[in-house]
Amino acid sequence: MAIKILLDAGHYSGYNVSPVNSKYNEGDRMWDLHLLLKTELEAYGVTVDTTRSSKAADKDVYNRGTAGKGYDLVISEHSNASTTETTDYPVVIVPFNDKATTLGELIAQTIAEAMDTAQSGRTMKRTYVSGNNTYDYYGIIRGAVAVGAPGIIIENSFHTNPKMTAWLLDDDNLKKLAKAEAKTIAEYLGININGKTKTTSKCNFYKKSNIVNGSYCTLAKGTAVTIVEDQKNGWSKASYNGKTGFIKNTCIKNISGLSGYKKGIITKDVSLRSNTLVEKSTDTGFIIKKDAKVTIISTFTQNGRKWCNVKKKINGKSTDCYIVKSKVNI
Ligand SMILES: [Zn+2]
User: Fold this and answer.
1) Percent of the chain with pLDDT over 70
2) pLDDT for 283-328, tens place per residue?
3) What class is the 194-251 domain?
4) Does residue 201 sit in helix, strand or coil?
5) What is the DSSP string of 208-273?
6) Ligand 1 centroid – CA 214 distance (Å)
7) Are 225 and 219 in contact (CB under 8 A)?
8) Which secondary-structure segment (H or E) carries 165?
């Protein structure tokens, strides 16, 4: 089973303008961070969805948490605020059931190192009592816990600290932060260990699993790469230098432990689309019948709609096609 993570950008666009730097607002910048984190986690083979399809849209925080039903983890990205400009530490707010305390500690340490904060990283729990029950104070954590998913809030230091605010506004820094957080999460979930390998000969790092679309670069023999998935067609999906691409299996050592594709069963006759732009006529002309078995290459959300990527031989060529996820039982 592939790991599934739901990512949340804490606030809507324009929310919480930094009092020390008007160029920064938490809503927009944490939106950027959660998308960068999505890309980095996907490079580890994680299935990642987001709580909102547009940064202008707001959503009730409790409902963001309950949207995490079926996910292994729910993460909400924030920057913190203090009345003191010198306050500078990352804090990860974890559920009081302790299901994510270790992960929270690891992420807090990772951020403290990546951002070089003045004070050390830490975790925090906040609860309230109603009747005879204790609840997590923050809605997204409470909602996630209610549906059985560990939910955490990451405060990436303080946007009331001028140095850290400037740091977060730098695009390279934000990417570095996303990369560091993804690595810690992947390691905690035991994902990336199996996928590490080295090239056994000089080879190309291709953009697609064919040579027609060209390559990003040539990799020297012995280059460390992370294999995300064996495509079972002579190619492996791989991650190198922050990019996801493809390598011929003949150029890498056989590595075990990678998850294969998931199978799905069609629950209702559904048309196979050549792309996911709903406003265009995009049908391939093929209908997949109810109860048919399909191999799911990946799942993703676009404009709030969930899709499955499948392959279909069209005119003798294996072609990427799409099915709405609501009609597939995976
Ligand atoms: Zn916030």
Assistant:
1) 88
2) 777 888 998 888 776 666 666 778 887 877 777 776 778 888 889 9
3) mainly beta
4) coil
5) ESEEEEEEEEEEPTT-EEEEEEE-SSSEEEEEETTEEEEEEGGGB--------PEEEEESS-EEEE
6) 42
7) yes
8) helix 162-169
Q: Which residues pair with 308 in a beta bridge?
A: 299, 323
Question: How close is the Cα of 155 to the center of ligand 1, in Å?
Answer: 7
The predicted pLDDT at position 259 comes to 38
Cα 16 to middle of ligand 1, angstroms: 8
Q: How far is the CA of 93 from the centre of ligand 1 (A)?
A: 12
Fold matches, 194-251 and 262-329: yes
In the predicted model, what is the mean pLDDT of residues 250-257? 59
pTM of this structure: 0.62
Interval 107-117: pLDDT, tens: 999 999 999 99
**Domain boundaries 4-188, corresponding CATH code:** 3.40.630.40
70 pLDDT tier (thresholds 50, 70, 90): very high
CATH topology of domain 262-329: SH3 type barrels. (2.30.30)
